[in-house]
User: Fold Acetylserotonin O-methyltransferase-like from Oreochromis niloticus.
Amino acid sequence: MVLNPVISKLAGKLVVLASASPRRLEILRSAGLRFEVVPSWFKETLDKGLFKAPYEYAVETAKQKALEVARRMPFKHLKTPDIVIGADTIVTVDGMILEKPVDKHDAYRMLSSLSGKEHSVFTGVAIVLCHEKENEEVDYQLIDFYEETKVKFADLSEDMLWEYINSGEPMDKAGGYGIQALGGMLVEYVHGDFLNVVGFPLNHFCKQLDLIYNFCTSSLKSTSSRSDSLATSVPTQPPSSSQALLSHNSSSIPRPSSPCDSQRLHTQITPTASPAHKVKREDSESESSQTLVNSTSKHTDNRKVKLHDNATLPLVTRRGQVVEPTRGDLERICELMDGFKASKALFTASKLCLFDLLHSRPGLDAAQVAQEIKASAKGTECLLEACVSLGLLKSTEKACQKPVYENADLATDFLRSDASFSLHGYLQHCNETMWPLFSHLESAVQEGTSQREKAFSKHMLQATSTSSREGKLRFMKAMHNIAKITGKTIATAFDLSTYKSACDLGGCTGALAYEFTEAHPGLSVTVFDLPAVVELNEFFRPQHPDNRVSFVAGDFLKDELPKADLYILARILHDLPDEKVHILLSKIADACTAGCGLLLSEIFLDEDRRGPSRGLLQALSMSEGKQRSATEYSLLLKSHGFITAHIRHTDNLLDAMLCIKA
Ligand SMILES: O=c1[nH]cc([C@@H]2O[C@H](COP(=O)(O)OP(=O)(O)OP(=O)(O)O)[C@@H](O)[C@H]2O)c(=O)[nH]1
Assistant:
């Protein structure tokens, strides 16, 4: 069943949604459209000041998102889509453009600016039509438009605002609210297309498709058959007199476009050699397949068309009904099957310091990288290409030259060993310790015990064990990385102004303690950890250490705990067997007087234990401890006299809970 007959015009075409938004996927899927999802890597950083009107900004962003995917697919996915759809939703109020909030305070800023007022929601949409030419180049033709919906918010009290923000809903939504869910409660009225607010103006989109396929078909044909690669004329009449017809060179820097009507048609003819063909022809997997492809390149094309049509997928029986799995289903399965390869590629690149190298020397080609990391040319090339496909690196190919490589933002932010939020140490821990453990998962599950002894030879056991200096340092680096990334979120999760002294039990390098003193000017923090850990702390001392952080050596299961009015337990309990959990909590309870606090930070499992996967997968390492939900932690702490005051599910790697000694 399709909502609009025009959607059926796309049957048999490779339609790609260049968006990671689950709402857009759902809207288009519910309309009966068959498509693949390839999220865009375009960063939403256009200079808003350059646009005359806010919707121009949304349209340009949508355009760049779609074009990035249209250009990437022939190279990275080895197939050229027929149509790529990109969208961008923004909220405008009092002359400001609101996108997705970056944190809770940003969400507060946005929602309070919307309180009691009418605002506009604009979604810019870009449809890129790709035409493969016989000479293996690709022409792109662009149609874009926008839709405006007016929304009025009720007056929002501070309590309502914060309750809504703490629900976590605002974070991935333009303007900080989701009208389709809890955010609907904030809304007094909506004038215009509701789905436009949710992220995709379906009605306007269908009208555009209608225009494209019933109005412009002849122009599309003539465009795609043109041989001059930079033609700028548009061989069609505009769909309406209000439409501006523009030519646009795809290689130009994003720029404010001319007065933006609510729909526009561009001819954008940008030749790109399609490597999909080249790769198919050079495929040397077997002589016979090569011959087949070479000698019947026409068949290859037919096969491709068939592949785009879901009818070629195997049928499955679900609850007694024979159905076609979606391409998304298959992609998800492949992603899971290949997940281990992606992890190991990441660990290897990190271990070989590839991201450090390309940070200090961007623009190296594969041979130069191979020389620097002292690896084989073939292996390095494969690793570089795999990292590009995973979004960790970017490659640029200039005519007749070898591709050169640089870090993608993800690598710059998290994979360099000297990045502020580096995960380099944690990745080494995963590679050296978790990987061997998880390769014995079958026996771990069968026996229900840790597989350390099987996974590591005697020598390795020594090196990976925290009893060796090397193993200890690696583990400390891993914990340091996680503490740096999560520290600020945990330290600012609660109002701690009534506490003057805190003790971070098992606080390792002190990274978390420094975040606490930075966030709370009246607080001093003692880090309590094993003597061998405290001894190695010099490797992690910050450049300007805060003298409100001090280190005390001791064993929290045996020794007397330092006095404090707030105890911090971050990533400790999940790893301890029950008897040790009870010893530790009893010792903390004994050290506390009424009113003292206990701040616990862990991954909190969902109450129905269906997620998050990170917590549930972690449990498979079969350490002696266990993963718990917030309620389970609350009950555990209650049995030691602590009453839960606040729980925070954060967007970060760890959640937090503040309990008070009764
Ligand atoms: O009421 C609602 N308003 C908005 C949304 C969702 O908000 C985001 C808007 O962000 P953007 O357009 O930048 O799209 P992304 O999610 O980043 O995905 P892309 O990969 O396409 O950039 C969008 O997801 C809306 O659905 C909402 O849910 N309700």
Summary: Residues 339 and 545 are 40 Å apart (CA to CA). The mean pLDDT is 83. Residues 284-308 form one domain. The chain is about 40% helix and 20% strand.
